[in-house]
Amino acid sequence: MATDKKFTSLAGREKIVGNSEKLLNVLEKIENIAQSNANILVLGESGTGKELIAHIIHENSLRAEGPFIPVDCASLPENLLESELFGHERGAYTGAFSSKPGIVEYAHGGTILLDEIAELSLPLQSKFLRVLQERHFRRVGGRKLIEVDCRVISATNRNIVEAVQEGCFREDLYYRLNVISLQLPPLREMKEDIPLLCDHYLDHFNRENCRRIKALSPQAMDLLTRYDWPGNVRELQNVIERSVALCQGDVILPEHLPEYVRESGGVSGIRLSLPFEEAKKEMIDIFEKKYLNQLLGKTGGNITRAARIAGVNRKTIHRLLEKHGLARKGDK
Ligand SMILES: Nc1ncnc2c1ncn2[C@@H]1O[C@H](COP(=O)(O)OP(=O)(O)OP(=O)(O)O)[C@@H](O)[C@H]1O
Ligand SMILES: [Mg+2]
User: Fold this and answer.
1) Would you say the CB of residue 17 lies under 6 angstroms from ligand 1?
2) Distance from the CA of 90 to the center of ligand 1, in angstroms?
3) Which of 67, 182, 184, 257 is the most exposed place for a label (fewest CB within 10 A)?
4) Is the four-CA dihedral 116, 296, 309, 160 of positive or negative sign?
C-alpha cells in the first residue's frame, strides 16, 4: 500500500496512499517545510487531499503537541464566522448571553487551517491580516488584547492570484499566507497511484461493511485508470464505496462502476435494452457531465469564464452543476 523507502519518518505518512513521483515530491517538500514556522498555502483541485496534507504538516511540526483546528471559511455568513474565529464577549450582539473564545484562541500553540480561504470576506481578511502582523486580537465586543501564537495553513481550490488581481483578495494578506506554497497535483496526473488507492479503499469499505470482496477485475481497474477523476481522490473513494455496495460476488466488475466511468473507457455506452427516449437521456447526461468537467477543468472552476466559453449564461452552468451533483460550495 503506502510503502516506500523514503519519507517513512513522516508522522502520519501511512494515511497517504501512493508512490507516484509527483506525490513523493510533495512529501519531500513537506518534510523540508513542516518544522519551519512559516505559513503555508495549499493549492489544489477539490478532493486532492489539501486538508489531509495540512494535518500531516501539523503532525510533523514543532507544534504537533498543540491543537490542529480546521475552519471552513465558506460555511458561515460573515458575522457568524467573525465570532467563530475571534470569539465574542457577553452582550457583543443580541443573543450573545455569555462570552465565548474563538477558534483563533483555541489554536494557540498549534495550527489553524483556513480552508476555502478565497471565500473570506474583505473585512475579515483585514482583521486576520492584523492578527498575523500584531500577533494579538480582541474578541468581538471585547477590549482586552489577547496574545496568540499559531501557525496558519490556508487552502483553496480557486485561482487566488486571479482573486487578488480582481480585488477580491487582499494582496498583503496573500503574501503573508503564501510564505510557502504547496501545489497538490490532480489525480489524473498521478494515474499510477490509482490501483493502490483502489485497493486501499476496497479494503477500507470491506471492513466497514463486513464484506469480503477480493479484488477489482482487470477490466474494472482498466476503466478506473482511464477515467479522469475531476473530483480526485474523494470521487474515487465514493466510486469504490458504491461499487462495494452493488457487488454481490467477490470481484468488482465493470457493471458495478458508474456509467460515466465505464463510458470513459470507450465502451459503447448506448444501452439498447432501454427505450429510445431513456437511452437518449442517459447519453445526454453523460455528455453534459463530461462537457462540464472539461470546461471547468479548463477554467479552474471559474463559472463566469466557463459560461462565456460555452456561450450560455451562468445560471445555465449552475443548473447543470446542480443537476449532476457537481456543484461545489462557494461556486461563483
Ligand atoms: N493520497 C491520498 N491517500 C489517501 N487518501 C487521500 C489521499 N488524498 C486524499 N485522500 C482522501 O480523500 C478525501 C478528500 O481529501 P481532502 O478532504 O483532504 O481534500 P480537499 O483537497 O481538502 O478537498 P476540498 O477542496 O473538496 O475540501 C479524504 O477522505 C482524504 O483522506
Ligand atoms: Mg478541504
Assistant:
1) yes
2) 38
3) 67
4) positive
Within the chain, which residue ranges are assigned CATH 1.10.8.60?
A: 188-267
User: What's the pLDDT band for 91 if we cut at 50, 70, 90?
Assistant: confident
Cα–Cα distance, 220 to 210 (Å, whole number): 22
Tell me the CATH class for 188-267: mainly alpha
Most ligand 1 atoms within 8 A of CB, residue of 24, 48, 57, 240 to mutate: 48
278-324 pLDDT, tens per residue? 878 878 888 898 889 888 888 888 999 999 999 999 999 999 999 88
The CA angle 239-243-246, to the nearest 5 degrees, is 140
Mean pLDDT (the chain, rounded): 90
Q: Ligand nearest 55 Cα, by number?
A: 1
* CATH of the structural domain 270-332, one choice from 1.10.10.60, 1.25.10.10, 3.40.50.300, 3.30.1540.10: 1.10.10.60
Q: Give pLDDT, residue 273.
A: 66
Q: Is the CB of 228 under 6 A from ligand 1?
A: no
Instruction: Please give the full DSSP string across 35-69, using - where no structure is assigned.
Output: TS---EEEE--TTSSHHHHHHHHHHTSTTTTS-EE
* 111 SS3 class: strand
Strand-pair category, 151-156 with 180-183: unpaired
Looking up cell 465574542 gives 88
Would you tell me how many other CB atoms lie within 10 Å of the CB of residue 229? 26
Task: For domain 13-185, say whether CATH 3.40.50.300 is its number.
Answer: yes
CB-ligand 1 contact for 51 (6 Å cutoff): yes
Q: Give the span between the Cα atoms of 4 and 64, in whole angstroms.
A: 24
